[in-house]
Design a protein that fits this description.
The protein has a 23-stranded antiparallel sheet that branches. The chain has a 5-stranded mixed sheet with strand order 3-8-9-6-7. The chain has one domain: TonB-dependent receptor, beta-barrel domain (Maltoporin, Chain A). The chain is mainly beta. The longest helix is centred in the N-terminal third of the chain and has 5 residues.
């Protein structure tokens, strides 16, 4: 449940004059070839002109020595991670794009096949619910350019996970087993195939681990099924997912400057909350059709429904809490793409409508079986029209521009039972109802120019927005004050520029950006209130590089400088907590003996960062850390094997802590594991 545990409207007209990026060109013939976009998978296609982008392939994922998707994604420039549950299989690990700290999960949008995974509460996207062997690639677009295509939450960037299909593939099946530290056991299975126009693929996995700390067990089960009918004139597809996750929540380790207590040293693996837990079950179904209307123009009509049910319990010595949450989200997202000529220039456009309807119900009581003290009921509907166009102004120059108008309505209420059992001194009061409709805009203008086959420059300006989520609205009132659900919408305006260089076996990308935010949403873990911050700013620079040293050796690397600062108010000039200024990584892949024996290794550096709740920048910082992960593996005929070690040099570190608001040197930290190992073996049939 992540941070969430802590705390049709009027129709819109849309224009048909917009599109994603066009890159490929034939400079010899002076022609421009706009690349096709698999719209059933991704609206981003080859990326948005003017934006900083990267792609993680299925092979990158398979050969990564990291144990979770967040480990793989966290190696990309401009992305940081932090964890509150010791990160078993990535459970409770937050992905932060461009420095949003505690609110990172609400400022980066995660998609699967172009469909939103972010819910309207503050629960982090459950990356662990996506079987790794089902992923074809991961597209990353940094910054807020994706807000035109996807709307809310696109402030730091977009992570779009594209899953595999079995279209035109022969039947095959694969099984894999793994075991590792802390009694970790994992099984993966998949099957796929096609016959004529029909195809199907199935993926499933199960994981069990006792975890690094007391009350840190993780149990995870996931399943994905995809069915498709594909013909030259169009296709139809149906997708099902289901997941079940059960987590023990060990709480923090205390460092107290007054008493001298230091549980990071005396009892690093102990639990402050030995009975707390969070259980989540989810499922979804998505269906869609595509149809080629005429040459170069395709219509896509799809929709789906997603369900999530949570139970969580906290036992805090009288201030106990038991929560049950139900969330249902329906969506309908038709769109059209068109390749055409505009004023004699090749152009590719996409335009569409997004409709989302989310119903959220949460009961908060003292203990399981007690009548709820609060029964929160919220319904959020969004209706948006958007369009984006990419025009090849010259064979060497692409211009992308687009806009989005989104209407957002929320209805919220609190059914309060003053007779229900409550914690001592809680001073509970009922919340104030809210019924509000707002309209927001996002836009993007980007330009990319290729001087030759080696050097290209790109730049963009864009505006995005983020509406308050349910947990921010519900959790904003201190004890004894009625919740009024009322917060302002956060806005961000970006400017970015960069260069891409390909020279022989070397490819690099560098960019610099400046983000100006108003009404940034922030949660205080001391007062359990949410508020709109004074204006904030994020700026920085990101560099990534790949070098093919030889036919069997590849080097990768990246470095990022990220600043997140308050622009106004009492904290003006101070760093926003939980954001490291400097991060970097170096990786290497070596095929020692063809594919029979391979080596992969990564070195990740994360600089010091301010603790959560330390806007005054007066508490000690979370120390910097460097972690080395390595993997040996191979493929022999149809069989695969690997042995990996995470945190090879047994660094004892933590990347998340909450500072005391009153006592210097006092804080709660969430320690991460030292050295761990994993052994895998699998077979394909």
């Amino acid at each position: 449940m992540g941070l969430g545990f802590r705390r049709l409207s009027t129709a819109l007209m849309l224009a048909v004059m917009f599109a994603p990026s066009a890159r490929a060109q034939d400079t010899q013939d002076n022609k421009v070839i706009l690349p096709p976009i698999d719209v059933s998978s991704s609206r981003l296609g080859g990326g948005i002109a003017g934006s900083s982008t990267s792609v993680i392939t299925a092979e990158d994922i398979a050969r990564s020595p990291g144990e979770s998707l967040q480990d793989v994604i966290g190696r990309e420039a401009g992305i940081q991670t932090w964890s509150t549950f010791t990160g078993v299989n990535g459970a409770g690990t937050t992905v932060d794009m461009r420095g949003f700290g505690a609110a990172a999960g609400s400022n980066a949008l995660v998609l699967v096949n172009g469909r939103r995974l972010n819910d309207i509460d503050m629960a982090n996207v459950n990356f662990a619910a996506i079987p790794r062997n089902s992923i074809e690639r991961i597209e990353i677009t940094r910054g807020n350019s994706g807000a035109v295509l996807y709307g809310d939450n696109v402030v730091g960037g977009v992570i779009n996970i594209i899953t595999k299909t079995a279209v035109a593939l022969p039947p095959s099946a694969r099984i894999e087993g793994a075991f590792g530290s802390f009694r970790r056991a994992e099984g993966n299975a998949s099957a796929s195939g096609s016959s004529g126009p029909w195809s199907a693929s199935l993926y499933g996995n199960a994981l069990s681990s006792d975890g690094y700390r007391v009350n840190n067990a993780t149990r995870q089960h996931n399943g994905v099924a995809d069915f498709r009918y594909t013909m030259p004139e169009g296709s139809a597809y149906l997708n099902f997912t289901a997941n079940d996750q059960r987590l023990g929540l060990p709480g923090a380790r205390r460092v107290d400057a007054v008493t001298g207590l230091n549980q990071l040293e005396s009892d690093r693996r102990g639990a402050t909350t030995p009975f707390d837990y969070a259980n989540t079950q989810g499922s979804s179904v998505t269906a869609g059709v595509t149809r080629n209307l005429w040459a170069g123009t395709e219509l896509i009509v799809d929709g789906g429904v997603r369900f999530r049910n949570d139970k969580a319990a906290a036992f805090l010595g009288g201030f106990d809490n038991f929560l049950t949450t139900g969330l249902t989200t329906g969506s309908f997202t038709p769109r059209i793409t068109s390749e055409h000529t505009l004023f004699g220039m090749p152009s590719r456009a996409i335009a569409g409508v997004d409709f989302y309807d989310s119903v959220y119900q949460q009961d908060r009581g003292l203990h399981q079986g007690d009548p709820p003290i609060h029964s929160y009921r919220l319904r959020q509907r969004t209706l948006a029209g958007y369009g984006q166009d990419t025009i090849a102004l010259l064979p060497t120059t692409d211009l992308a521009f687009g806009g989005r108008v989104q209407q957002h309505r929320i209805i919220a209420s609190d059914v309060f039972d003053p007779t229900a059992p409550t914690a001592p001194f809680a001073f509970e009061l009922g919340g104030l109802p809210l019924d509000r409709t707002e309209t927001h805009q996002a836009w993007h203008v980007g330009l990319e120019h290729r001087f030759n086959g080696m050097i290209a420059i790109f730049g963009r300006v864009a505006q995005s927005f983020r509406t308050p989520n349910v947990d921010e609205r519900v959790g904003m009132a201190p004890f004894g004050t009625p919740t009024n659900f009322d917060l302002r919408t956060q806005t961000s305006r970006d400017i970015e520029g960069g260069v891409r260089v390909t020279y022989g076996k070397l490819s690099t990308q560098w960019s610099a950006y400046d983000m100006r935010l108003k009404d940034e949403l922030h949660f205080s873990p001391v007062t359990f209130t949410n508020t709109n911050l004074d204006p904030t700013r994020r700026y920085g620079s990101e560099l990534s590089a790949k070098y093919q040293l030889s036919d069997n050796t590849r080097l990768t690397g990246g470095a990022s400088y990220t600043r997140a600062v308050f622009r106004e108010g009492v904290s003006a000039g101070n760093d926003v907590p939980l954001v490291s200024r400097w991060t970097g990584n170096i990786g290497g892949s070596w095929d020692i003996w063809q594919k029979y024996l391979t080596f992969d290794g990564t070195v990740r550096y994360v600089g010091p960062r301010r603790m959560d709740n330390d806007q005054a920048n007066r508490q000690p910082m979370i120390p910097a850390h460097t972690v080395v992960d390595v993997r040996l593996g191979g493929v022999v005929d149809r069989f695969t094997w690997s042995v990996s070690v995470q945190n090879l040099f047994n660094a004892l570190y933590f990347d998340y802590a909450v500072a005391s608001a009153f006592t210097l040197g006092t804080y709660n930290a969430y320690p991460l594991p030292g050295r761990t190992y994993m052994v895998k073996a699998g077979a394909t049939f």
